[in-house]
Structures are given as structure tokens and as C-alpha cells.
Amino acid sequence: MPKRYDRTASPPTLEFMMCKDCGMYGLCRLASNGEDANVSNALVKRRFVLRRGEYLYRSGDSFHEIYAVRHGSIKTYIFGDDGRTQITGFHGNGEIIGLDALDGMHFASEAIVLETTNVCEVSFPHFQDLSRNIPGLQSQMLAIMSHTILRGQQMMLLLGKKNATERLATYLMSLSRHIKNKSSPSSYKLTMSRRDIGNYLGLTQETVCRILARFQEDGIIKIESKYIYFVDMDRLTALTSQSRTEHIADCI
Amino acid sequence: MPKRYDRTASPPTLEFMMCKDCGMYGLCRLASNGEDANVSNALVKRRFVLRRGEYLYRSGDSFHEIYAVRHGSIKTYIFGDDGRTQITGFHGNGEIIGLDALDGMHFASEAIVLETTNVCEVSFPHFQDLSRNIPGLQSQMLAIMSHTILRGQQMMLLLGKKNATERLATYLMSLSRHIKNKSSPSSYKLTMSRRDIGNYLGLTQETVCRILARFQEDGIIKIESKYIYFVDMDRLTALTSQSRTEHIADCI
DNA sequence: CGCTATATTGACCAGAGTCAAGCTTTGTGG
DNA sequence: CCACAAAGCTTGACTCTGGTCAATATAGCG
Fold it and tell me: Going by fewer Cβ within 10 Å, which terminus of chain B is more open, N or C?
């Protein structure tokens, strides 16, 4: 069963990912006076490793830190009044999470680790101290939060206007952007379950299965259990939204 | 047809709303050294009035200002690749908009005025200047943005997990919170169309009509064209989510 | 006062959900 | 290293909620 991690027992950190590809790199570099912020810097006080099923934070936890996913993947979700959950994001290399707790100083969401994951921790009070002396640190943070707001709006569009096929295609496209290796067909490891994908996209796991199967039949992707291979990105892109000629009625 | 407003031609501002009830009040007061920030202060350089159908900003406009709705209502929306639109919010008294443009320095969304509306304008560069000298100004802003992120997440839950009845009930509850007058039954003027409500909630206007009609039949609300009267708030609250006993299967 | 946009209501339909059964992968303990 | 259990995935049959299309009705605007 999932349990809270023991931060003191973290094994030695493996540096899977360059700092300069991290969403927090701008912050880290500013905090370190423009020096290369790799490995150790003024902003990040701690790094640690979590394993699948462990929580990074739980709903109601008091907020002291924000986190960057250095390598791995984490899902975040919120609870409705009736106990239903909505996954609000899957967060991979370089992404920053915990920003939604800043108002109210308690986490409204939970973050659970999907695979062995390496996390950078930034003390928020420490961040505030630093930003008094470093102009631009706060603006960087505002930009990051603004970006998070934008992603939320894109998600509303997906959930409010797109059908199941478009949702899956859009989701797969967003995965494909995270791919580094340029081998063709490029591949991605789905660390989340079909049920998680469905929850995130406002669909059931059955619908996710069926549509992935159809994409595979049509030669757009190839699936081998947890791995997905992107075969025809052009056709996948075409499926993310309706062709511009149909359905312009909904313009405001 | 909607047109961009002429800011120089603004008629004299009527002060409908107390500054201390505004979402930006914390910022304004901090910027004014703790003095009461009403009417004029160091942060807000300009106020103006827009009329129904006018744009506050358009997609692609370069970002210089953020705005607070002093009195009135504004809808914001984004475009999908195929031209479909998703309304991302209806913004009433005291709400702050324009925060999504901060990353990228261009507006991704549009804001269109639904009724004669009084807006406070804050120059973002000016805000940044001020915040260098006033600790806490930036943290206030971070808190406001964090709150916006939370609202986005709640919206994902609504769009991803709730059925049409729950969506409408949740929406009406959120309207009822904006009501000042305590007369019973309390009322709210719907400045947005049924189509707008549907667009926002991921429904069609027909579904919105039908469910509002059913709420009225059931004596939960009363509708007189643009006005809605809240008759039975308890039953409305009960409709916003499923009873806790059913459907706990979806817990993560 | 008439015209247009918006709202309402009904009949019908389809996309995605539900339920169920069987299959595959993963993890655990002997 | 294998056997078994549990969790996750897949597929099919059927259902139902909410969308679509269409025909009025009403309201708001000039």
C-alpha cells in the first residue's frame, strides 16, 4: 500500500537529467548569481528519491516546499466533495508541482509517485528570502504559475469541447513532446495506468483501451503493454481537433 | 458588433463597490503603505468603463496590464486549434483577470464584457517596480495566481467527473456566493446567455435550458428571463455532487 | 413595432458509460 | 525460479445521458 516516504533514507541521487532542461533552471540560475546551477545551488536545498506509490504530499498537508521533478513521473489529483477524484496532471522531467498550495498554505491536492522519481525541493520561505535580493526571481515564478494557469485552460478546452478520440490524440501528442530520443518510431513509457489516463481525460478505462486499440489498428501508434510507439505523428496531430471547415458555429 | 473600447472616452466612474471587497485590495493596500486604498492608490493608475460586447483584451494582444473587475461582469475564453472556443471563466466584482498572459507576454485568451463594467487597470511593469520595494506585494500576487490555479483544477473536476445536473447545480452555487443582498429568495442577474453557460460547463444550451426548467419545476430555483431566484439552497447544494455512499469505486 | 437573437421544448440518435467475462502482466512467497 | 494471486488490461453486449435537429416562443433592440 502507498505510504509516506522516509526522506532521511534516500539512496544516493543519480543525475539522470541536465539541470538546464528543468522548468526550475531559470530560478536556480538566478538564485546562484547566474552561475551554472547544476548539482548544487542556493535555491535547492535537498534532493531525494521516491518510489512508486509513495506520496510527495497529501491533501491537507501544510505547505512549506515546492518541488521539481528531476527525473521520473508523478501524478497529482484533487478530491470532490463526494470523494470522486480528478487527476490534474502527470508531471515528468523538469516540471514543477505544489504551486496550487501557495494560497491557503495547505495542499488541496495530492501527489503520488508513478515510478522511481528524483525530486528537487525548494523551501518556499527560503525562496521568498532570496527573492527579496534577487530581482527577477519572483517574476520567473509568476511566469511559471501563469504557464500552469494556461495549461489548466487548455485542459478545460479538452474536457469541455473534445470527444474521446480527440482527447486521447491530444494526450498522446503531449506525451510525444517529452520524448528526447529521436529514434523512429519514438517511444514513451506509460507509467500511469489506463484508468489514470481515463480519469485525467474524463473518460473510462474501457474507452481509453478501445481508442488506443483503434489507433493501433489504424497504424498510428503501436502499443506493447506499457510502451507506446509513435508511428504516424501527422495523422495523430490531425486527430487532436476537428478539421477547421466543420463546426465553426460555436464561435462566440 | 463587438469592438475594441476607446479608453480615452470613458464616462465618469461610478463607485459601485467597496475596494476592500476587491480581490486586488491586498495588493492595493500594500502598494499604498497600508493606507486605505479606496478610489486612488499607488497601484491602480486608471479606471474605466466598458459596455456590453466590448473587448478588454484580445488573443495575441501584447501584455502590459492586469485588470480587476470593479463592478460588472466579463467572460474570458480561449480558442482551440479548430476554432472552437472554451469559456474559461465569468468574472464579477473583485476578480482579477489577465494573469494567464504573464508567461509569454501575449494574451492567449480574450475578455469580452457582458454588461457595463468598471475596471481597474494595473500596469505590470509598474507593479514589478513597486514590488522591489514592498515585500509581500509579490507574495500576494503569487497567492492570487495560486488561487486561480485551484479554480482551474476545480473546473477540471467538474468537467471530467460531474454530470449535467451536478455541473449546473455547482455553477448556480458559485453564483449564489456572489450575492450580497440577503433578501429571501436572493436573486442574481445572469448577464451571460444560456449558450455561454453551456459552453463554460461543457454542455449545450438545450441541456442548460432543460435542467434549469427541471430545477424550477422542483421548486429549487425560480427563473424570470435573465434573473434567477434561489429558493432552496439546501437541495441545490445536495445536487452539486453525488451522495457519499454511492460510487466510491473511483477512489485512487 | 417589427426584426433578430436568444430561449424553450420535443423527437430522435449516437457516443461513451456500465456491466461482465476473460486475458495478461506484475508481484510475492515458497 | 516457479506458482499463484492480485491488479491491470481488453473486448463484447447493452444502456442511457446528453447531443442534434427542428419547430416555436419570447425578449431585446433599433
Answer: N
Dig out the grid coordinates for A2 from the structure: 502507498
Say what the pLDDT of residue B5 is.
Answer: 45
Q: Which of A15-19, B108-112, B163-167 is the least confident region? A: A15-19
Confirm or reject contact between A144 and chain B (CB < 8 A).
yes
A163 contact to strand C (CB, 7 A limit)? yes
Compute the nearest-CA separation of B50 from chain A (Å): 18
Query: Could you give the count of Cα atoms lying within 13 Å of A139 in the half-sphere of its Cβ?
Result: 17
CA-angle at A245, arms to A198 and A216, nearest 5°: 35
Q: What is the Cα gyration radius of chain B?
A: 19
**Proportion of chain B above pLDDT 90, given as a percent:** 67
What average pLDDT does the structure give for chain A? 87
Q: How confident is the model at residue A245 (pLDDT cuts 50, 70, 90)?
A: low
Residue, of A39 and B11, whose pLDDT is higher: A39
| CB interface of B with A, residues 181-210, below 8 Å | 199-202
Q: Alpha-carbon torsion B97, B102, B157, A212, what sign?
A: positive
Number of H helices, E strands in chain A: 7, 11
Q: Which pLDDT band, with edges at 50, 70 and 90, does B33 fall under?
A: confident
Which A residues 89-128 touch B at CB under 8 Å?
A: 99-104, 108-109, 112, 128
Cell triple for A50: 521516491
Protein residue with the closest CA to the C1' atom of nucleotide C6: B193
- Residues in chain B closer than 8 A to A77 (CB atoms): 252
Answer whether any strand C atom is within 7 A of the Cβ of B216.
no
Contact predicate A43/A129, CB 8 Å: no
**DSSP designation for B10:** P
Range with the poorest average pLDDT among B99-103, B190-194, B219-223: B99-103
Separation in Å, CA of A21 to nearest CA in chain B: 18
Residues of A in contact with B128 (CB under 8 A): 139
| The pLDDT of residue B25 | 87
Asked if B159 has any chain A CB less than 8 Å from its own CB, the reply is: yes
Alpha-carbon gap, residue B76 to B113, rounded angstroms: 9
As a whole number of Å, the end-to-end CA separation of chain B is 48
